[in-house]
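Objective 1.3, modelling of assemblies. Example input:
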Amino acid sequence: MILRALLANPRFANWLYGFTPPERGVVILRHRRVYIVPTRMGWMYGATLVVLLLGSINYALSLGFALTFLLAGLGLAGMVHTARNLARTAVSTGRAEPVYAGESAQFHLLLDGRVAFDRPSILVRHVASGAQLVVDVPGHSLAEVVLAVPATKRGRLPLGRVMLETRYPLGLFRAWSYVEPDASCLVYPHPERTPLPPASADARGGTARARSIGSDDFSALRGYQPSDSPRHVAWKAVARTEKMLTKQFSGESAGELWLDWRLLPDELDLEQRLSRLTGWVIAAEESGAPYGLRMPGIDIAPSRGEAHRAACLQALALFRMV
Amino acid sequence: MSAIAHPLAPELRALSGRDLTGLIISLILVVAPHAQRAPWWLALLVVSLYSWRAYLGYMRAPLPPRWLLLALAAAGMVSIWSYYHTVFGRTPGIMLLGFFSGLKLLEMRNHRDAGVVAFLCFFLIITNFFYSQSIPTALLMCVALAAISTTLVGFAAPQRSSRANLRTAGLLLAHATPAALALFLLFPRVDGPLWGVPEDAYAGITGLSDTMSPGNLAHLAQSDAVAFRVEFQGKPPPSAQRYWRGPVLWDFDGRTWRTEHPVLAKFKPPEGGGQTYRYTVVLEPHNYRWMYALETAASLPPRARYTTDGEILARRPVRQRIRYELESVIDPAPDATEDPAALRRALQLPPAYDMRSVRLAHEWRDASSSDTEILRRALEFLRKGNFVYTLDPPRLGLDSIDEFLFETKAGFCEYFASAFVFLMRAAGVPARVVTGYQGGDINPVDHVVTVRQWDAHAWAEVYLQGRGWTRVDPTAAAVPGRISSGLEGAMPVGQKLPLLMRSQFHWLRALRYRWEALAYKWNTLVLGYNPQRQRELMSLVGVRDADWRQLTATLFTLLGALTAVLLAWSLRRVARPDPVQKAWQTFCRKLRARGIERSPYEGPRDYSERAARDLPQARGTIHRIGELYVALRYGAAAPPARIDELRRLVRDLHLT
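Predicted structure (C-alpha cells):
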C-alpha cells in the first residue's frame, strides 16, 4: 500500500529505479539499476537446503554437510552470475516506422553485451502491453529485439518502460532492470477506406477555387520545397539562377484532387473525419494522381510520392494533439 | 541473433527433450546405488517408470491420466509396505522416495515440475550417504550434481548447446567450492542427533556382537569391511602382539557365550611392563559401545568408561566413525587383585553338558599340582590333537564342545576359545572368553594398520595365582599359522578365502594399499571432521576454545569476503572499457572543464571542430584527436599504434 503510494510519486520511482525517464542515447544498465530477488524456485531451493542441513546434522553425515554447503555455494554463485548476466548491458533504440492505429508499433531495441561472454536468455518485456521476447546476446556482439507494441490511438506513441529480466543460469534468482528509452513511434489515424471525393475540389465552397493550386497551367515560379516533385522543378531556371525553383501551376484539371476537411459529412466527429481523410490519402497515393490536404490551419499543396504522403499522414496523426 | 517470443512466464514453459533427458540421467545416477538394496521388483518398477516417461517424451505422447498415477502410487506403497512391513523406517522410506521419483517424472509437464524433480535428486543424493560415504560414492554424486546443474542451466538457456551449459555448470560449481569449503570447515557442528532416528538406521553394520556362538565369527571372517584403523607413533608392534581387546564374555549356556551388564570401575593404569605404544584409532561404527584397544591399555580416551574386566566403553553406542588416542603397554606387571565373586563367576559351567570334556578336565586337575600345569596340559592337548582350522566347519549338535574336541576337530577361533575356556573352568581354573581382533594389515604406503572384520578373533584369559588374568590363545596353540601369518597361513590350501587375501593377487594388494592410504586420509580429514577438529582448526588461527558464536562470526566474514571476490570477478569481466572510448571520455571531460560542453546532438567531429575554434592554442592536437577518434570508432580496423597515439595525445592535452 505504502509502496504503491510511493511508486506513484515519480521522484521516488526515479530514485528507486535509478534513472529519470526518458533516457536519451545508449542506456547502460549499471549495477545500481539491476535488482535481484529469489524466484519461487529459489525459495524452494532454500527450503530444500534447510531440510538437507537438518538431516545432515541429525544423522551426522559428513558428506551430507558437504553436499548442502556445496549447494549453498552454488546458490550464491548463481546469484552473482544472474546479476552479471544483465549488468552493464547497453540498451539503445532504433527507428520505429510509423504505423496506423490498430496495428502494432515495431520498436527496435539493440542490446549490446559489451563483454566477451554470452548473455543468454534475456527477457525483454514491454511493461504497459506485456509484449515479451527472449533473446540471447552473444559475446562481443549485439542482439536486436523487435517489440510489437499495440498502437491504439493516433499521435506519438512513446515506447515507455521496458523491463529486462534474466533468470540465467540456475533459475533460482531473477535479476531485472527497467529502461525507458527516448523512443516513440508515429501512429497515423486508423484508415477508413471510402471512395475518393471527386477530383474537382470546388464542389462546395467558392474560396477553394482561387486558392487551388494544380499542375495544369503554369502560373509562376516559387522557391523549392523538399516535398516538391522533381518533375515540377524549373530546371532551366535552376541552370540560369543556380537556385532551386519550382514551377507553380494553377488550374482545375481533372487530375487535381483536394482532400478537404469540409468535404466530410457534418455528423462525423473528429476522429472519424481523420480516419476518413487517412483513407483518402492512402487511396489517392495509390491512384497516382497528385493530391493536396486541407484541414483547419493546415494546407498541404498537391503533390505525390512517399514523402508527400508521409507529410499528409503526419499532419493527420498530430492534428490537434497537444 | 533471433529473439523468440515467449508469452508464458519462464517457469511455465514446456519441457524440451533435452531437459527430460538431463533429468532422467540425473535420476539414474542418484538412484542407481540403491538398486543393490532394493528388492528386484522395485528396481524393475522404477526403471520401467523412467523408461515409460522417456518413451512418452520421445513420442511427444500425452502423459498418463491422474487416476492411473494415483492407482500406481497406491499399488507401489502397498507393495513396499508388505515387503518391509512398514513405510516409516529408513530403508523403506528411501525406497518410497525412489519410487515416487518415477511417478513425479510421469506427471512432469513444465519447468516448475522439473524443478521439483531436480530438488528430489538432491534428497536422493543424501540418502546414498546413509549407506556409504566412501570416495567412489562421493565421486559418483559429484557427477550427478554436475548433471543436475547442467540440466538446471539448460532450463534457463534452452537455445544454448549442452556443451556450453555444461561449461557454465562447471564454472558455477568451481565458484561454489570456496564458499562450500568455508561452510564445511566453519559451520558450527553439533554432537548427536536432533531428533530420534528410525530403529533400522544402524542395521546392517558389521562387527563383533555381545554374544559368541559357533559360526558368527566365521561369518565375519568373510567380510573385508574395515573394523578400525590405527596410526602408531613410531613403529607398530609385531603382528603376534597385536591383540585388540573387545568384549569379554563370562557366561556360557552350552552353546552361546554372553555377558550382561558390565560393571564400571575406576581406571587404574598398569604398572611397569614392556614397551609402550602411543596410537590413534579411527573406529568404524559398529553399534556397540566397545572401543578397541591394544592389550593392555595404559590410558583411556577422554570421556570413555572402563569396566572391571578391562573393556573400554564409549558413552553411547558407536554409530559414527570416531577417533581416539590411546597408550598401551605390552606385558604389564602382573596384577592379581581380582574380586572373589568375579572368580566364582569365571568357574560357572552349564550342568550336564559335554561330559566327556568335563571328565578330561578332571583328569588333568587330578594329575597336576598347579593351575599352570593344567594350562600346559590343555595346550599340549590342542597342539597334538590334529585340529584343522576352517571357516566352514561341520555343524555341531547339542554337546558342541565334546563334538568339536573329539569328533569333528575342525573349527574357527571361536571354537577353540570356547572349548578351551570350558576345559579350564571344568578343571577349576577361572577363565573367560575375550573377543576382539588380532593382527591387522600394515599399509606400506602410510604405515597405518587396517584391521578388518576378517581379523576378528576370540581367545581366552585364565586367572593364575600370583599373575592375575593371563591371555592364552588356544587357536595359536592348535594352529600356529593363524597368528604368525594371519588367516591365510592358517587355512588349508584349497579353502575358499576372500579374494584379496589370496596370495596370487599381490599386485592387486599393492593397489589396495595405495587406495587404503587414500581412504584413511579421507576418513580422518573429511568424514571424521567434528566439533573437536573444528576447535583445533580455530586454535590454529589463534582462537582458543571457539564456540559457535566465534565460528559463525568467522564464517560470515569469510563468506562476505568470498562473495565480494566473486562480485569483483563478475565486474572485472564486464567493466573493462574500450580504450578508445575511455580516451574520448577523458578528452570530453578536459574540454568540459574549460567550459566546452558537448551537446547531445553534436557528433564527435563537430564537437572537436568547435573546440578547436574555441581553443586555438591546442587546435592541432584537438583536430588530431577528433580525427583519430572518428577513425578508430567508426573505421573498420583499429591498429594498436593509433589507439596508443590517441591515448597519448589525450593524456598530454593540457588546456590551461
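The CA atoms of residues 297 and 636 of chain B lie 84 Å apart.
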